[in-house]
Amino acid sequence: MDRYNYTTIPAQCFLGESPYWHATRRSFFWVDIENGKLFEYHLATEKTLVKSFPYRLTLVLEGKGNEMILALDRKIASYDLDTEKLNWLVEVESDLPLNRFNDGKCDAIGRLWIGTLSTKFTQGSGSLYRVDKDLKPEKQLDELTIANGMAWTEDNQTFYFIDTPTRQIKAYKFDLESGKIEFDRIAIEIPEELGFPDGMCIDQEGMLWVAHYGGAGVYRWNPITGKLVEKIDLPVPHITSCTFGGENLDMLLITTAQENMSSEQLKEYPLSGDVFMVKTVSRGYLSYPCKL
């Protein structure tokens, strides 16, 4: 199944996550959650800039102008790339000090969808929120454990979502105008031997590219048939997320992690925590910026 070559971008993240393509800057962004680091890799110069924050940094998305939207612990902030100033926007779950944000994306009209989890990974302690311009978080799903990957179909009729330990990708009916979701079906069940589904993105054929934590690759799934289409094999076990980018949206940027690995495993898989870039035949979509 493997017919892909990869380029390695050194990053050595403990928990690399949230890859994002910024078309205007022609850069890929990603984060190292536990170390509070924000990375920007400029495609043309192949240079990487790193900023550090005194928080767990779980998410980076595009905001207005030169601002990025960051999730830091349980708070959302806009971050000015020029002045390096944080502007705090909203906080959730202040009564749950063990919780933090995890993965998130913006829908086609710029609302932020973002999940939470307990740093103890307590079953059922996470939720999925929708945040609109009024900055009032609206809970969409609860009783989650590790709120993770999400994607929308091109017609905005279907929202796909992952709660990692379930090993399922669920499809929800989605109403773009109201932002409401309604459970429809289990689209994909991940066999135990393939690891856990983590972050994901969708291509222009409607196939889901899913990072498999413990599965040593990105797997391309058909959410209509539930069948595995192909796999990108990678030389590290813990694959955390992926996104399409580049001028033709045919470069897949893939984040990985070093967490839950022994020193022996890290010697065996020394590229763990680095970021991989793979040219694909498939193309993705430009991500929607946040309009908070």
Automatic annotation (TrEMBL):
Family in the record: Belongs to the SMP-30/CGR1 family.
Molecular function per GO: calcium ion binding; gluconolactonase activity
Keyword Transport attributed: no
Gene3D superfamilies named in the record: TolB, C-terminal domain
Residues holding a divalent metal cation: E17, N148, D198
Domain SMP-30/Gluconolactonase/LRE-like region: 15-258
Descriptive protein name: Sugar lactone lactonase YvrE
Chain residues that bind substrate: R100, N102
Cofactor binding note from Swiss-Prot or TrEMBL: Binds 1 divalent metal cation per subunit.
Annotated active site: D198 (proton donor/acceptor)
The organism's place on the tree of life at top rank: Bacteria
A GO biological-process term: L-ascorbic acid biosynthetic process
Keyword set, alphabetical order: Metal-binding, Zinc
Matches recorded under SUPFAM superfamilies: Calcium-dependent phosphotriesterase
Required co-factors: Zn(2+)
InterPro entries for the chain: 6-blade_b-propeller_TolB-like, SGL, SMP-30
